[in-house]
Amino acid sequence: MRFLPIVALLLGASPALACGPDTDCVLGDRHYRIAMPAGHDGATAVPAIVFSHGYRGSAQGVMRNGSLRRMVSDLGAALIAVKSKDDDWVIPNAPRHMDSDGAEEFRYFDAVLDDASRRFAIDESRIMATGFSAGGMMVWNLACSRSDRFAAFAPISGTFWLRPPASCAGPVANLIHIHGDSDSTVPLSGRRILETKQGEVREALDMYVRYGGFGPPRPARHSGLRCEERRNKTGDILDFCLFEGGHSFRTEYVRFAFEKFRQAGRL
Fold first, then answer.
1. What count of Cα atoms within 13 Å lies in the side-chain half-sphere of residue 135?
2. 3-class secondary structure, 33
3. Above pLDDT 90, what percent of the chain?
4. Which residues form the Phospholipase/carboxylesterase/thioesterase domain (predicted)?
5. What is the pLDDT of residue 14?
6. 82 contact partners, CB below 8 Å, separation of at least 6
7. How do residues 203-241 score in pLDDT, each as one tens digit?
8. Quick one: average pLDDT of 25-48?
């Protein structure tokens, strides 16, 4: 009988305790991981950064990035690390997925947001999607198909495969694209891979300028980034920022985008 209180406690444990930064949050045959900001009280809703990994990456690998974890925590945000089903994201025109419409991934991201918001104190109106390389490609597809679920998007060193869609669905998004000016892995003009090709970054931006009714660019510099900044009549953000270098990731790029969106009242 002395063990009954312990058993009762375990049976009554919150589902939020079942997963976190070191344990998978299971969604059928998929999963994600989440790290709440340090010192979070468990009740106050916080913004979130959803991070999509690159080719052959993992949610576990994202969570092992101590610099990223600390930076997101310092911002007072939750870090949600998502995971592709296999090595890469199943999105339109991707290698071995030429016929995909991305619906499988979009349903997965919907499920992640629904599940994380149910388990944890996440402010669903302040969620930014970001990712590096292949993860940046996933983010561009989300910006075009799930702009109703995210407040802002920050793709890094990745764009659409082959070509951008003719148009997008849903409300116009706030987006900052960040890329290395001498990237040879995902060049700004793309490169051929198997039966397809990486898209051209400028084509994606031009499509979104038309879609969102964005005005002419204004040059700006921000801590190592050379940017072209555009706004539309409702104040939505579309920025294109280059850094000197190749295919590399720095947590400061995520911080820059998040803080810019927050200062503009978008997060």
1. 25
2. strand
3. 91
4. 104-191
5. 47
6. 32, 50, 51, 52, 53, 59, 108, 109, 112
7. 999 999 999 999 999 999 998 999 999 999 999 999 999
8. 96
In whole angstroms, give the CA distance from residue 103 to residue 233. 31
User: Which two structure tokens, joined as six digits, stand for 259?
Assistant: 């803080």
Q: Which residue has the tokens 């900052």?
A: 176
The closest of 197, 213, 199, 209 to 240, measured between CA atoms, is 209
Whether the per-residue pLDDT at 5 is higher than 90: the answer is: no
Q: Count the Cβ atoms, other than its own, within 10 Å of residue 4.
A: 8
Has residue 28 got a pLDDT over 60? yes
Element holding 201 (H helix, E strand): helix 201-212
What are 220's two structure tokens? 């700006």
Cβ pair 177, 214 in contact under 8 A: no
Sign of CA dihedral 230, 240, 243, 127: positive
Fill in the amino acid letter for 28.
G
Q: How far apart are CA 231 and CA 55, in angstroms?
A: 32
With beta carbons less than 8 A apart as the criterion, state whether 128 and 154 touch. yes
pLDDT in the model for residue 230: 98
Query: What angle do helix axes 251-263 and 66-74 make, rounded to 10 degrees?
Result: 20
Query: What domains lie within the chain, and their CATH numbers?
Result: 29-263 (3.40.50.1820)
Does the pTM surpass 0.90? The reply is yes
- Residue 127 to residue 130: CA distance in whole angstroms: 10
Report the C-alpha gap between 253 and 139 in whole angstroms.
Answer: 15
The band of 100, judged by pLDDT with boundaries at 50, 70 and 90, is very high
